Each structure stands twice: as structure tokens, then as C-alpha cells.
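ugh finaly. both done.
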Amino acid sequence: LSTMKLSLPPALLSILFRGSGTNSVNAFTLNKASSSLLPSLAARTRAASALSSFSSVAIDKRLRGGHTSLNMAAERPFQTWTFDKHCETMAWTPAPEVTLSAVSAADGGALEDADLVIVGVFAPAKDEKEDGDDEEEKEIDPIVLTGKALALDEALRGALTELAAENSKAFQNGGGAGSMTPVMRIASSGSKAKRYVLLGLGAEDKEKDVDSATIMKAAGAVASACHDQKKVASCNVLLPSKIEGGSALKDFSTAFHSSLYADNRFRTGKKVEIKAEYVKTVQLFMEGSADGAASAIATGAQLANGVSLTKDIVNAPHNVLNSESLADTAKRIAAESGGSITCEILGKEECEERGMGAYLGVARGSETDPQFIHLTYKPKDGDIKKKVGIVGKGLLFDTGGYNIKTGMMELMKFDCGGAAAVFGAARAVGDIQPPGVEAHFVVAACENMINAKAMVPSDILTASNGKTIEVLNTDAEGRLTLADALVFADKECGCESIIELSTLTGACMVSLGKKICGVWTDDDDLAKDLEEISKTTGDKSWRMPMAKEYAELLKSKVADMSNLGGPYGGAITAALFLTEFVDKKKPYAHIDIAGPVWDDKSGATGFGAKLVTEWVRKSGE
């Protein structure tokens, strides 16, 4: 018999031999070289008998406090594949449980009646003559509080003024939007200490409304304070009169709820982090109008739910998210829309019938069958002014195919960022239900993998509009899947205007960095609409040139076109390629979100969901 080596902890030894009448130490001999235990044949027999009669889960729980290692079939922290079966569902992150509301500061009760009180303040308007002054040298004037903030400061005997003065250099009287002072605790007899903090809202501009970016920064700071201040159950926030109305409250609500996102789907035990877990209520005290507050806050929360789903899809690993689990996500969006959204899934047979050779050429390398996903939103009153299409790139993982990637492959789960933005927007649209617009959300879902059926360089694929494409590089696969998706939105859905979002090129990242997406369109009106929406939603964009002369770079020796341009201008040639699959008379925009879809520190950003949702809403006006 060969020698069997066991390295077992004493706790397991005592379980195996408890009641056997045998001293467990004497039943084993120590191998000095390896420090492992060499059991005799009799000891091994007793061990096997003990193991067969004792629950492996019970053993594991006693040794590891509930974690399973000996029994791999026990309950897992999240659903994933088995050896022979891929994952069919993806969990969604639940919405934050904090209740956000708004009241008029004039009749909303006592501002200080909360564990945490946040007072929003504007810095004085900047004097143009002071723009060149050295900030380090310039003396900071005492803060000037007004309205409810002044009344609170007087009740606290000037404590807020002192707080601003003590932190004048860093806080600059609120000159930085979203900046905060340290927390000040004030105790009163008969009650626990309350916490006060000043929130910067930037320099006041008496001629302009407060922009969305400032409001969203302030809301994010409030969410951070609620998380950082432990054991706080309630928070009141005072906002000056310049911040008022439904649009401001919607922006605040969206940013506040989005800032509380924490993806715990794949964490266990102490690694789980719940943002602001102690906070139950956050109430905004509005010195301006609070009319329509409940509706605006609810809309903002619905939009934040869409952003959350976008993050979930991008964050999900490939062993959880594939074409079939993404299709299941689409079905759930439709099911939760209250009947405003319908879901259609085309399988490989339906795709073949439509001649989707470009998409299927990529999908042949996938483990799961292709899932061509089509969600349709229609307003319940049936009044439709415009029909629009939103197409998203749905590569659940991109190895590069046979032109395999040599770097950043661990990030290639975010290659579905376009599909994530589209489905996040679909969720929000289904909840908000904007009038006057019919919206078609289209994603050709698959992976770009390597197997015996996967496409190889020099293959020629035929798209559903009949155009042939020579595959010069299998890592330029996204545009192939988008080609058939665009034809579907254009011809089969009959969309009057189409936008498409994709993590398409590294060239766009080189041009615009990781905060701004690129927009390519020949339609000036569509470009203007997207530019305005980008500013209001915070999803930053920049219009890029559609240089027609670069189309020469897509010529093929053997097909109608190739899927790859030259070594330069790759983002432009990618956009030009896609225009071949949409009616030239229709407004169409290609939006490359490769940069802003992912943050190296925090992961998925949720980029694009707000932009798409607002575009759909405005299309119905």
C-alpha cells in the first residue's frame, strides 16, 4: 500500500475519533520531513467509517464557521455555473432602503430634529478681479448665512459660523460643490449629541440657475456623509432657495440613490458593505419651492434603479453573465414594467432566417446560444409621436477571438457596457413611462471566444442587409454584431431615429480619456439634442468628426468591405463602418462609451443609462 499523507487540524481529528476508544495521536505517526500525519491502515479504516457517518457539512461548519469546502454541493453565496451547465440568471442589486423626502423649510418642522443635520451654503459670487489671486495668500472672509441657516446658527450660538471659520482654507465658505466641513457634535441636556456639517454648493451665480452637476455633487456628498457617520438613523438637509423645483429634486434623488449603490452579490461575511445601513430617513428642507417633490424624488429613484442595473450588468463576471442570463434579465425588465414593455428573444434559427450572418459569425464561438434581444416600450395611452431605436453592444466577454488580446483581458466583461446602458435605460423607461414615444431596445448578445467553430481572420460574413464583410481581425467583432442589430432596428422595427452605444474602440479612449464618450453623427439636430442631454444628465460627451475620406481604409480585396481600418483613426473608421447598416436618410448616432463605462477604483460607472433615458423621454415631446 502506498503511504497516504493527511494534514488535518486537531479539531477534525477529535471529531473523527471521538468515542472510538483510540488515542488519535497514537493512531498516527508523524512524518518529520513534511509535518504531515501518516495513519496506520487501522486508523484509516476508522477515519473512513467516521467520515461516512458524520455530516460533511456539519464538520465543515464546526471547523470554518459555516463556510463549505469539503461539500461543494452545499449552498453557494451566488448562483453560477456547474461543470456541465452555464448560469441562466443574474441577480440584481436591491434598491437602497433609505427613505428620501422633501418639505418646505417654512413649515416642515424643526430642522435640527435629526441625528445628522447638513446645511447647504453657497460661497459668495467670485469677483472677476480676484480670479488671478493666489488662493493660498487670499484671506477668507467670514461666511454669510441667511434664512433658515442663519436662524439655526443663532440657535447654536454661532457654532456654524465658527465651523466655517475653523475650516476656511479647505472649505472656502462652500466654494467647492460637494465639499464638506468636518462634523461638529453638539450635546444638549436630556438628549444624545447631534451632528452638524456644512455642505458646499459652489460659488453663487445670482443670474443663473444651479446646474445639474452641482446638485448631483451635493447629493453624492450627502450620501457619503450618511454612510460615513455611523449610528445615524435620520438626516435633515437644508437647501437654499436657489435649489428648487422638480428637475433639481429629480437630479438630487438620482445622484443620492446612485451613490448608495454597493455590489454585494459576490461578497460574503464581513466583506459585505451596506451603504448608509443605519440611516432610515433623509429629509430635504427646501427654502425654495417643494411643489411636486414626491413625484420628482420617485422619478429620480427610478432612474437610479436603471443606473444600478447598468452597473450590475457591467460588474457581473462571465461565469454569471452570458447571453442567456442577459436574456433572462431582459425578460425580468419586461415583467416588472407593468405591461409597458414587451420582450422578444430571437434564437439562432430566427437569426438565420433573417440572414444575420455578421452577428452569428461572432456568436459561433460562444458557449451559449445566441440571444437576439428586443424590448419594446409603448405608452399605455397608445398616443405615439415618434418611434426610436436604441442599440447596445452586447459582448458578454471579449477574448479577442483568434486575434487574442494580450492585455486588459480581465476587464473584458465590460464589453457589454452598451447593452448595460440600454437595458438600464429600458428599466427606467418602463418605470417612468414617458408619453408620446415608442422605444425599441435592441441587443445582439453573445461572447467573442475561441473554439472549433469560431470565426478566423479572412472569413467573409454576410450581414442581414446583404453586404459582405471580410474579417481582417477577430477582435473587431463588436461592429459585426451591431451591424445586424442596426439593420433590425432600421428595417424590421421601422425606427425613425436611432442611437447606438458600444464600448467599441480603444482609439476613442486615447482621444477622449476615461470620462467622456465620443459621438459620431451626420445629423446636426441629433448631435445638438445629445449634447444638451449630456450636460443635464452628467454623462459627458463630445462630438467627433465623421471623416468620409477615411472610408477608403475599410476597402476589401475580396468583399464589400473589411471590418478593420488602418492603424490610425480607428474610432472614425469604426463609426463609418456602422453607417453602412442604417438608412442614410435617418438620423443615427454612434456613441463610443469605451472610456467612461469603467472606473479602475470603483468598477462599473453606470454610464449611458441616464443619457438614453432622457433621450427617449425628450423624443416623445
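ok and the 2nd:
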Amino acid sequence: LKCFEALPPPRHRREFATRASAQTRNRSTLDGRAALLSAAAAAVRHLVSVGRGALGQSALMEAGSADYSRTLGASAAAAAARGEAPFCEAKVPYCTKHFPFADLVLDLIQELAPESQPPLEGLHKYCRRRGSSLRRRLTELWTKPNSVKGRARLLALHEAWGDFVRDVLRPHLGEEWVAFEKEPNIRVHFAQQKAPVSAHCDADHFHTPFEVNFWVPLIDVDGSESLWAESRPGAGDYHAFEARYGEAVRFYGNGCQHFTVDNATQRTRVSFDARVVRGSDVAHAGLVEGRSIRGQKFLTEGPSRFRLFGYYGVMAADGELLDADACLARGFRLRPEPGGGDTSHDTVAGATTAGGAPPQAPAPALASVLAAAPAAPVRPRSTSPEHARRCALEVGSAREAQRLCARCGWLANRERILPRLVYRDSSGALVHWVAECPSAEQPWGLGCIPCAEQARRSGGAASACGCPFANFGFGRAAGGRRQPLLVKALLRHGNHAAGQRSEHQRIIRPNDAHRDAVRAFGGHQVDWVELPGLSGRASASAATALGEAEDDMSPGLGDVLAFGLFD
């Protein structure tokens, strides 16, 4: 409407209305708001092109961007919890003739493994033995091209990726400009291979919550060879992405757990993925400017490693902008307005006293936490032995049930996991923070007692933002499907992962919400070395056994119950 009213002559308003109605006549079969904005953008661009429009592109985006997603000025995580675009799952079709990514990536793979032949899904027939080496060398290609020919092939992929961002992803997001990951991550998951990526959220690795992930498979995927994710943060409805070559999958990887499982098919999956920040969100994303950080230093810089004009590039309608001056010349804001404050990151902080110290309170009783939790109108759940027996019969064996079902996996391995999931209360005693939902009238799930009590005191804000631990929903079956037990998610929630504790390699972001919830009751977190009966070396061995001595970009044993690696 703002675009429409700004067009002064009535004749031009009629032209605007004619073009808009022609493109939205069948909007009942489309997303009405997105279709209307697209039509408005097309109409105004036409008027501007013939010198008649009263609005430029920047004014168009100012008028239409808020209507497209209604997330400006609000937390991206909250928008994702509500399932708002673009912080939700969707498919983005594109033309493989204009963007022949499969051919370009195959050219790169043939540079590293000359014996490789098309199609990509048969790659395991030619270079299976060098699988780990191939993945590592594909990652290093951006900085270490092997030859002049390899550099040319890499440049061709880089140019195609930039064109894809400019012509497909940027219009899809309804933006005049975007910040995008300059070097997409190429992934190879060989047939009959163990899972190469364990469960994680990008927020665990200091990514800004305003990122939107785009995953581009280069073969048709629909099962164990695909990427798995939940539909929104905390939903727990893990499912494989189903897409064809020529479709990119958009999802909110910053807050949604995503991972791979063992590839039980006879097809090798090759894909690439990258992250994009809308131009209207860049000013609130807190991105620093600078050159790319690589190597060991990349692991020590925390959030500052994701730099604008280094890790991220800036793409406008006419191509990439190489520095801040070029952005400012076009009116693209890279920082919040001076004095305007930044209200884009709505967080739920732990209660503190006037002096800044957390108030002392007794540790919450599980019964009191559950008494305040809303009861779900479901049938009484089965007992643990009955559930384990029925689940084993349905999937064929107890071992398979432990791999596929979070409840069965927890029942079989909780004695090995529980000693790690503790904190010290105000008296210094070790207390388990994790518990099963004890109400027989609610579905089974795991929860965090301090976080649940903190959510209750704050009126359920943490639960509303998608934290499954606050409502004892972690591992709960969703959508009629069993869900695997993701051990690393448990460890990271309690700040027990090695990458969260290290002062030298800040690989994984600490869970401040859990830390504040524990402090609110006079407790403090426990390191591995504090656990009774474990020396420092034994603690390190225990951490390695649970797959926490790695950066989550390589195969680990942390999600052993999910992937059948926990004997």
C-alpha cells in the first residue's frame, strides 16, 4: 500500500494495479503475501525502469520487507519457533541448465580423484578408499587449489554460486541485497558409510541467529543419504529432507538440530550448503568487518571469525560489493542506527540481584516443576519395560530399538550417561540436572530441572522459544515417528562438551541459559575433571569416548545412540 500511495499520477496507479492483479489472480494457490509483494516489486521495478516511479528499490524494500516476514526488530529465534518465513523449511527450485552445479562439482572431484566418473551418486565405486581424504581436500580447495586447472574449475563454481545467490536466493528472500557465505561447503556422504556429521545447531558454533541455511543436493535424496533436521527449534520431529536435483532446501539451521545418519543406500550423496543473511537483518546481526580467518586461528576467535567481506560477501542485484564504502554509497546499513539501540535479539536472561549476583534459592524439586507444567490430554504412557519390549518387536531387535528410539536408548545407557549430566548445588553436592518426565499422563521425554523451573518463574518464556528441556520434551516422539537420542545435545545443554569448556579453542558456544538457571539456585557447573573417581586424563578419555574432542564438522561418537555406534 505504501508503494501504491507513493505513485502520484492516477494513470501510473492504474498501471501498478493492473500488473499486480495480473500476477496475483490465482494467489489462492500461492503464498498470498509473498505473491503480492513479488507483484508489487515487479510493478514498481517496471515503473522505475521507464522513469515514472516515485520509489527507488531501497524505498520498495523498506515498504515491503516487514510484510514479507514480519521479523524485523524481533528475535529470529522467536520467528523460527513460530514457523515464520524465511526462518522455516521450504524448497527453492532452480534451473540446472543455468546452474549446472553437479557438473562443476564433479570437475572439482576429478581434479582430486581423476578416476571418478559420472554420475555423482556412483562416486563410491571409484574413490571409496580415499573418502575421508577427499572430504578434507574438498574443504581445503578454497585456499589450496592443486593446479592452474583446479583453480579455474574452482573459479567457475565460485562464479556460479555468486550468480545463484544473486538471481535465485536474493529474490527468494525478497531482498535488495544479502550477505552470503562466500565459500559454500561441499559435502560427500558415501554409500554404506557411517554418519559424517553429528547433531548440532549452527548457534553452537557462534553463528548469528539471523542466518538462513540453504542446502543444495546434487542428486535426488529422500532417505538415509539425505540431511536430517527438525522442522523448527525444539520440535524434535527429525526427518530426512526430500528433494530432487534442481531444488535447494531452505531451513533454519541456527536453531534447528540437524545431522546425518548412516547411509544405508547404494548411492553417494554429494551436496553443498551455505548460509545467507538478509540485507534488512545485517545491521542487527553484529557482523564484524575484516578478512577471512583460517586454520587454527579460526577455532580461537569465537563469534568474530564470521566476518563481513571475509567469511561473508555482500550481493546486490547487479553483483557483489567488495567493501563497506560500496555498501554505504548505496544506503545499505551494516550497523544499527546510532542511538537507536538493537532490539533484535530478544533473550530470556536469568534473574539477578541489583549487585549482579544471582539470587540464592533452593534447588527446585522435580515434583514442583511438573505440578506447574500444563498437562497434555493424552493417554497414559506405557511403563519403561513394556515400551522397550514393544519397541523391540516393532523394529526387529532391542539394539535397533536403542538406535532409533530415544526412550529405549536412554533406558539402555543412562547409567553411563547420567554421571556426566550433573551440577553442584549450593551445598556442594552433585545433583543431576536431567530427569525423565515423571507424570504418567504426559508423553515420555527428558528435561532439565533448573531450566524448567526458570521457565516456570519467567512465565514459560523459555518453553515458548522452543527449548525442549524446559517442558521435558527432549527425545519425545513427534509426528508419529520415533526420534533418536542425541547424546551431544544433552552434553551441550549442560555445558559438558569439551569445546564449550576450553579457553583456547572456543569451538562451541556455552549454553548461557542453562548456566544462568543453575546459578539462580545457588549452584555452579561441573567440569569433567571434577567428577568423582575421574582423574584429568581419565576425564579426557571419557570426553573422547563420547565424541566431544572434535569440532562437530567431522565424524564423532557423540550421537552414538542415534547412529548405532554405541556398543
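summary for the 2nd one i guess: The radius of gyration is 25 Å.
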